[in-house]
Sequence to fold (1198 residues):
Amino acid sequence: MAGERRKGVRLSKLYSFKCFKPSSGEDHSHIGSRGYSRVVFCNDPDTPEALELNYKGNYVSTTKYTAANFIPKSLFEQFRRVANIYFLVVAFVSFSPLAPYTAPSVLAPLLFVIGATMVKEGVEDWRRRKQDIEANNRKVQVFGKNGTFGETKWKNLRVGDIVKVHKDDYFPADLLLLSSSYEDGICYVETMNLDGETNLKLKHALEITSDEESIKNFRGVIKCEDPNEHLYSFVGTLQFQGKQYPLSPQQMLLRDSKLKNTDYIHGVVVFTGHDTKVMQNATDPPSKRSKIEKKMDKIIYILFSILIVISFTGSVFFGIITRRDLSDDGKLTRWYLRPDETTVFYEPQRAVLAAFFHFLTALMLYGYLIPISLYVSIEVVKVLQSIFINQDQEMYHEETDRPARARTSNLNEELGQVDTILSDKTGTLTCNSMEFVKCSIAGTAYGRGMTEVEMALRKQKGMMRPQEEADNDDSLSIKEIKASSTKSVKGFNFWDERIVDGEWINQPNAELIQKFFRVLAICHTAVPDVNSDTREITYEAESPDEAAFVIASRELGFEFFERSQTNISLHEIDHMTGEKVDRVYELLHVLEFSSSRKRMSVIVRNPENQLLLLSKGADSVMFERLAKHGRQNERETKEHIKRYAEAGLRTLVITYREVDEDEYRIWEEEFLKAKTLVSEDRDALIDAAADNIEKDLILLGSTAVEDKLQKGVPDCIDKLSQAGVKIWVLTGDKTETAINIGYACSLLREGMKKILITLDSPDVEALEKQGDKDAVAKASFQSIKKQLREGMSQTFAATGNSANENPETFGLVIDGKSLTFALDKKLEKEFLELAIRCNSVICCRSSPKQKALVTRLVKSGTGRTTLAIGDGANDVGMLQEADIGVGISGAEGMQAVMASDFAIAQFRFLERLLLVHGHWCYRRIAIMICYFFYKNLTFGFTLFWYEAYASFSGKPAYNDWYMSCYNVFFTSLPVIALGVFDQDVSARLCLKYPILYQEGVQNILFSWERILGWMLNGIISSMIIFFLTIKTMAAQAFQKDGQVVDYSVLGVTMYSSVVWTVNCQMAISINYFTWIQHCFIWGSIGFWYLFLVVYGSLPPTFSTTAFQVLVETSGPSPFCWLTLVLVMVSALLPYFSYRAFQIKFRPMYHDIIVEQRRTERPETATRTTSAVSGELPVQVEFTLHHLKANLSRRDSWN
Fold:
C-alpha cells in the first residue's frame, strides 16, 4: 500500500454526535422497502446478484442534444415561436402558384435566421459535450481481481468497485468512505461544486473499516436509500462480518467534491452516473422571462391581427373588382386583362373563390409586417450587453478578484424596471466577517467603545439615550480603540481593562468569567491548525461567529490548541494562582447547531471527573431552558442583550450545567437508539433526544459580535431610494438589531415614522403562558389584523393631506411571528397594501421559507418587477422566486451565486448594475423593439398601398430579393448597434440623477401608448413614402429621351426611400453616436446600393426587374435622387415635429437632464460653479422637484 498513514489528530467524532459501536439488533425496517431498495455488493461487482440489479454506469452527459436528436429537437425549439411557424408555412406555400414571389427569396432569410440560431445552440452544446468527455475520461485507481490498484476511466466504474482517490482529486462517483491516510479514517472534503461552500467538511469512516489492511479482503453488502437529490442526508446500513452498522452522511463522499488535506482515501462506489446526488440535483433553474419579452409576444399577435385584417380587406375589394370585370350583359370592363381567358385566381364567374385565393396570397405578401430577424437580433444584443456588464471595471472587486457576472442574458432589461428590492442582511448588507466586541458576564457588561451602528445612531435625533452605566459612557469608536491597541487580531476587536491581559482574575466574579470563556473555548467544532514555523494557531471553523468565539477565548487566556478523537486541550489561566495550566477535557458528545434548534451543545468530562453540558444559542430558545436556580442576573443579561441588539450586534446566550452520571447513562442509551434508527424521522428523534438533556441550564452571560456594514451600503441604499426603488430587508436578526442596522445603512431615515407590527403584547404573552395554542393563534391573528389596519389609517392620514409638498414617509417593521399571520390568505392583501405604502420594509426573524413567500407575495400582488439579493444558501428560494435574483459572492460560499441571474461581489455594486446598466439596457431594448415594429410597418404598408393602387392584384411593389433582404441585411445592423451602444446620458449622470431610473420603473418607453405611437409613425411614413413617390413620379418623363417611370424604377425609388427613411429615423433616434453606429447606419444604406449594382448585373432571367436598373436608369437621373430626398425628409418630418413638441412641452426625465447639460455655459463663473456643484437651472430644478414629489406621493403601483 503506497503512502505512509498519517498519525496524530483523530477527529472522527468532530462533526457528528459521536461514533459508537451499534449492535446488530437495531431497527432497519425501512431498508428494503420503497425508497430504500438499493443493494451494493462491495468489492464484488461481478457477482450474479449484482449483475442482475443492472445499475446505471458512471457515464455522464449534461448536453441538451445528441448527434441523433440535434436537428429535430433544435428545429422544435425554433418553431415554438409563432413567427417562425408563420414563415415556415409561407415558405411551403411559396412553391404554389399563389405565391407573390419566388420560393428561394422567402426560404433564404428563414434558413439564415433558423440556421444561425441552430449553430449558436450547437456550439454551446458542443462546449458542454467537451466538458463531459473530459470528465468521463478522467483516471482513477480501482482495486482489481489481482489484488492491486490499477487505473481506469471514470466512465468505466461500476457500483461496488473499490477506488483510491488522491489529494486534490475529485471523487468520480458517490463513495462510501472506508479508510484514509489518517489512522482513524478521517478526510477533509471541499464541496464548492455541490453547495458553493468554501469551508472544508470533515468526513470519517466507520471504525470497523478504517483498518487499511482489511481493504484487500473486504467483502460487505450495503443496503441503502435509492438515488435522490438530498445532499445532506443518507440512510443505509453496512452488513459486514455478520453485523450491521448504520451509515450516515458522514461516511459519504459525493461526486464532484474534492479531497483536501488528505493524502488518499479508499471508498466503495454506491451511486454512479446520473444516480449520483450531484446529477440528481442537476435540474434547470426556474425559467424567467422579462416583462418586455412577454409583452413583445402580445405585439406579435397584434401584428398578426393587422396582417389578417388588411389581407381580408384587400381580398374583399379584390373580389368586388373581379366580379365587375364581367358585367351582366357580358361586356368586359377591364378588357385588357382578358378576364374571359384567365385562371381561377382572377375568374369573374367565381369571384368569391378568387377572393379566397387572394386572401392566401395577401397573407404571404404582407408577411413582412412580422419581423423575422427580431428574435435573433435581440439575442445578439442581450449577449453583447452581458459582456459589457461582465467587463465593467467599476463593478470589479479587487480584494476578492471577483467581477460582476451576468449569468443569464434574458433579464438585462428587467434590471432597469426594478420596483422593489428584497435583501438579506448578513453577508449582503454586512461583511459576514465577525468580530468579538462585547460580552455580558454575571450581569456585568464588558467591552469599551461604540460600534458603527451606534455612531450612526448618534446622528438620528432622539435615538441616543444616556448610558445607564458609566463604564460604557465613552465616545471612542471601537475602530479607534482597536487602532490604539498594540496588536490587531482578526476576529477580535475587544477592549476592557478589567478583563484583558489576565486582569479578569481580580474581578469579584472571576469564577463565572472563567466558566464563561471555557464554554467559548470548548463548545464548538473548530479545528486548530498550528503553523510549523511560527507555532501560531489558526482555526478552521464552520462559521465566522464560531471562529470569533474561539479567538476571543484565546486572547483572554483560554487557548484551544489541540483536538483529538476524544479530547479537547486548553491552555488556561488558573483564576486562583494566575498561572497558565494545561487542561484536557474528554469530549463525549457534540449536539450540533441547526436552524431549527438554534443552539449547540457539547457534553464533556473535566479533569475533576465532572460531567458538564456546555451550551450556547439564541436568546429566544435559551432563556426558556434555564433552571429556576440558574436565572441569576437574567434581568441584567436581557437588558444587555437588548442594548447590544440596538447597537447592531449579534448575540448568543452562554449557559452550562452539571450532569448526573445516572441521568447521562439513561439519556445516552435513548440518544444512541435514536441515532441508530434507519428511518425518515431519524433526525427528528435525534433532536428530541438532544432536547431532553438541554434543560435546567445555568446562565453565565451573553456574547456580542459585530458584523460590519459593507463599504458603500448607506450611499447605495440612499441612491436607490432617490430612484424611487422600494427596499425590503428580510433578516433573521432580532427586531432591535434590524431596526438599528436600518438606520445605519440609511434604510430608515430621520423623520421617517416607524410602524411596528409585533406580537409582544401582554395579552398574547399571557395566553402563551397558559399553553392554549388555539387561543394564542386566534388572539395573534386578531392582534395582527388590528395593527395592520391601524398602520393603514396612519398612511391614509399622511397621504390625504395633499397640501403638504413633503409628505410624511413610513417604515414598516414586522417580526417573524407576526409575519406568519400576516402571510395568511385572509391578511396577506392588507399586509401587502400597507407595505407598499411604506418607503422601507424590514421583516425580522424571517425563515428562508418566509423570505420566499414574501417575495412571491410582492411579485404577484404588485405585478411590478422584484429583485432579490442574498449571499447564502438560505436565500436561494428568495432569489429563484423573484423576477431577478442577484447573488453576492461572500463568506457564506457560492450557493446563492449559483442560483442567481446576476452575481456581484459587494452590495454597493447594485447601484451601478441598476441605475446604469439597468437603465441603459431597458432603454436600448425598448427602443429597439419599437423601432423593429416601426420599420416593418413602414415597409409592409407600402406593399398594401401599392396593391390598393394596382386594384388589389396581389402584385408586390418590389423585386423578390429586395423584400427578402430588407430585414436581414439593410436594416438589421443599425438596430443591433442601438441595442448595444446607445446611451441617453452618461454613466456619471445616471448616478447623479437617479430619478432617470423611473423611466423603466414606470415603463414609459415600452407602454402601449409608446408602442402604438411607433406603429402609427410607421403607417404614416409608409403613406408619405408611397403616395408622395407615386404623385411625384407617375407619368413623368425622367430621362432625356422622354421615357417615363416604369414599374422597376418606381420600385427601386420607393424601396430606396424606405431604406433611407428607416435608417435616418434610427440616426435621429440615437442619443450617443459611436463610429460603429455611423458605420452600420450609413453602411447599410451603402450596402443596398452595392447590392443593387451586383444583383442588377446578373442576367435578366435571375435579376428580373433589377437588371441594370441603378446603373442605366435610376442612377443617372437627378429626378430620382431629388424625389428620394423629398420623400425621405417628408417621411421624417412627423416624428421630428413630435419630438420637438415633446421636448419643449412634455419632456421625459432624460430630456430634462440633456437640456440642462446643453444649456450650461462654462464661460461664465456662475454657471461654471453651478456645473461643478451639480446645481440645475431654476426651471429644471422646479420640474424635478415636482417629479420627485409625485413619486413620493404614489399610493399604489398602478
User: Anything to note?
Assistant: Residues 60-138 form one domain. DSSP finds 40 helices and 33 strands in the chain.
